[in-house]
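Form P-L/3: holo structure prediction, ligand zinc ion.
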Amino acid sequence: MTAHPVDVVSTAPNDAAADPYDAAVGLSATARALYDRGWMPGTSGNISIRSGADAVLITASGLGKGRLTSADTVLVRADTGAPVRPGSLRPSAETCIHLAVYRAFPAVGAVVHAHPPYATALASRRSRAGGGPVRFTDLELIKGMGRSYLDSIEIPLFANWREVPRIAAEVGEHFARPATDPAPALLIAHHGATTWGADLAEASDRLECLETLCQLALLIGD
Ligand SMILES: [Zn+2]
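OUTPUT (holo model):
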């Protein structure tokens, strides 16, 4: 039996990945585009799309993002991160962070994680300065993060633990706390950035805006 996602993705109503072939194509095309921007060097970075109520389609582990194809994706259970079908490709090592986001935000349909340089640099500088959220004020691009009515936004910053499930646990704990309209993004010090949205286009647009916000913050200075 082939592991091609066309065969394995569920197609529940209102599914962000209602057309499973499109979902796999979208994941791989987005990965190649982010690789071309230099945000997914080598095999780094990972992208996922919610597939029905109980599963997530995510990029497979250890494959060069510049060469990714629609077959290089794997359907995993939303509760455990285990492949739905035995013999599938191995899912991204950072699948658990994606699942923490999906659990926290039921309306989220896609999650993008990459290593864009300005976001990584700003997150690392913030961590060395004592940590805490990264706050942007006044910049027009804040609107690109879904903040049309606010002039500031705070992006939570997490430590880059060697054990990825520890990062995922801290992400889950953070977003389990009641918050008014939390940002659709997080930063991991010395590592990279993760954004999410209703669909893959919104999630990747937000990553572009976050990276530029970080670039502007570094240019403007303290
Ligand atoms: Zn990463």
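COMMENT: The pocket of zinc ion is lined by residues 44, 94, 113, 115, 191-192 (CB under 6 Å).
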